[in-house]
Specification:
483 residues, alpha/beta, globular, Rossmann fold, 2 domains, 5-stranded mixed beta sheet, 19 helices
């Protein structure tokens, strides 16, 4: 029987200088036992051995049957699924270190998928296939840690904000004495652009937890900082109340937040005014849209602003004809069904769409959000009822009971309460870009503001400061009307 292995894309070797810094940050003492649950080429085992730790105190586990020179430096177990092994072993360890695979459980081979999905979260419920393999590795490792033990892992930046990893974030307060998070704005691995962090947790079972977060512009500066690991003071880890305050609501409870319309073939469906006129296509066959982050640089967007974008030949038309318009207009039919070229109807998102020529959109767009704004997420309120957005932006639709309060909730997103939460949910990429996912934004809790304040006027002032990179002033304006 062939051995089921994870996708090769999830195998990223840790640079030796980074592995050395992490292992040295954990440190060793006489008699301590070590575990490397994702042994691979053995870079961590090599560095543990350099500390003077003998083979008998190091256990290395890996699914890959291909050995490495480092295998002889530890008690090495290959051809073994660590997640399955962890369920049965009675062994416990003082130090656990590694770089677990970053791959969705859904992408694993069926046999590996079943084991990973069945790993219990802190609430005892299986994490399921919607989680990631690294999360399963961390959970399994935690259950193998001795009292007052330490662990260090290289993790994706998603560890700080994804919904599926919320269990670990909440449990850290009770289970560790300290947690250090090191993030680098440059790539830690060749060919990997997604943000990466090094997490070092100390004193298992000795909470409450002190947290220290640091960001560095180079791998070298981060490695230098790791040499001081454990020496700097942190702040006490806050625990979110079990129940929300009646004056605080998560964004997802008051509004639907979705990706803008996905065309599947932007060159066919999106066009500027000059191209529309050259094709002599009627405006009735189009939906007005915003398609770039630079289109939403205001507290609110009115038709006059959209007209300015149209005159500047921005791509602000989405070809989205109804069957009636197709029947009545031969130019529309000619554009839909040309003799040559035309839309790539085999493209993803088009091939199974019915009718293929209509891009699904929210029935109403109350506000637009850029998920990759340099300043961070904020709401551009839509004052042009027919306007929608494509998938470079997020679209927000308030529930009816909250729609009249759009400017209040937009202003609430700029309060210090909301901004503290937002700082922790950005997905950092190696080129410095920060992305905010709809699911994470939906969890941000917004405070109600004073009902009689002029929220629209205050919001205009706050957004002006915000977009001028003056976040303190924007927060002061928003906080001035908090209840």
């Amino acid at each position: 029987m062939r051995l089921a292995l994870p996708p090769t894309s999830c195998k990223v070797n840790t640079p030796s200088d980074l592995a050395a810094a992490i292992v040295q940050a954990l440190g060793d003492q006489s008699g301590l036992s070590w575990l490397e649950p994702s042994h691979g080429s053995g870079v961590f085992v090599e560095e543990i051995s350099r500390l003077g730790v003998p083979k008998r105190r190091i256990l290395a586990v890996d699914l890959d049957p291909v050995g490495s020179p480092a295998d002889g430096l530890a008690t090495t177990i290959r051809r073994v699924d660590f997640l399955k092994w962890a369920q049965d072993t009675r062994r416990r360890f003082d130090r656990i270190v590694g770089n677990p695979p970053f791959v969705s459980i859904k992408r694993l081979k069926q046999s590996l998928q079943r084991t990973a999905a069945s790993v219990p979260d802190f609430d005892g419920i299986a994490i399921g296939r919607g989680s990631n393999t690294w999360y399963a590795f961390v959970l399994a490792s935690l259950r193998l840690l001795k009292k007052d033990g330490c662990m260090a892992f290289v993790l994706p930046s998603a560890a700080e904000f994804t919904n599926y990893s919320a269990g670990i974030r909440a449990a850290v307060h009770d289970t560790f004495r300290s947690l250090e998070l090191y993030r680098c704005t440059r790539p830690l691995f060749d060919g990997v652009q997604e943000g990466t962090i090094v997490a070092i947790a100390r004193g298992y079972g000795s909470g409450p937890c002190k947290v220290r977060r640091k960001r560095y512009t180079s791998r070298e500066s981060m490695i230098k900082a790791l040499a001081q690991s454990g020496k700097a003071a942190g702040r006490e880890c806050r625990v979110r109340p079990a129940k929300s305050s009646p004056v605080v609501l998560p964004l997802k409870s008051m509004a639907a937040l979705r990706l803008g319309g996905v065309t599947g073939d932007a060159s066919f469906f999106l066009m500027d005014e000059e191209r529309r006129q050259s094709l002599k296509l009627p405006t009735s066959a189009f939906t007005p849209v915003v398609s770039k982050a630079r289109h939403v640089r205001f507290a609110y967007l009115q038709r006059e602003v959209w007209n300015e974008l149209k005159e500047a030949d921005e791509r602000i038309w989405l070809f989205n004809p109804t069957p009636l318009i197709i029947r009545e207009n031969w130019r529309v039919r000619k554009y839909l069904y040309p003799e040559a070229g035309g839309c790539n109807r085999e493209a993803y998102k088009i091939v199974d769409r019915k009718p293929w020529y209509q891009t699904p959109l929210l029935s109403r767009a109350d506000a637009f959000i850029s998920g990759m704004s340099q300043q961070g997420p904020w709401l551009c309120i839509n004052e042009f009822p027919k306007l929608r957005a494509t998938n470079t932006l997020y679209v927000l639709r308030f529930a009816e009971q909250y729609r009249q309060e759009r400017y209040m909730w937009a202003l609430a997103l700029l309060t210090s309460i909301a901004q503290r939460q937002i700082r922790g949910i950005g997905r950092h990429y190696a080129d410095g870009l920060v992305k905010y996912e709809p699911g994470a934004l939906g969890e941000v809790e917004l405070p109600r503001l004073q009902p009689n304040a002029n929220h629209r006027s205050l919001y205009e002032q706050a957004v002006t400061s915000f977009l001028n990179s003056d976040l303190p002033t924007a927060k002061d304006i928003a906080d001035s009307v908090r209840l």
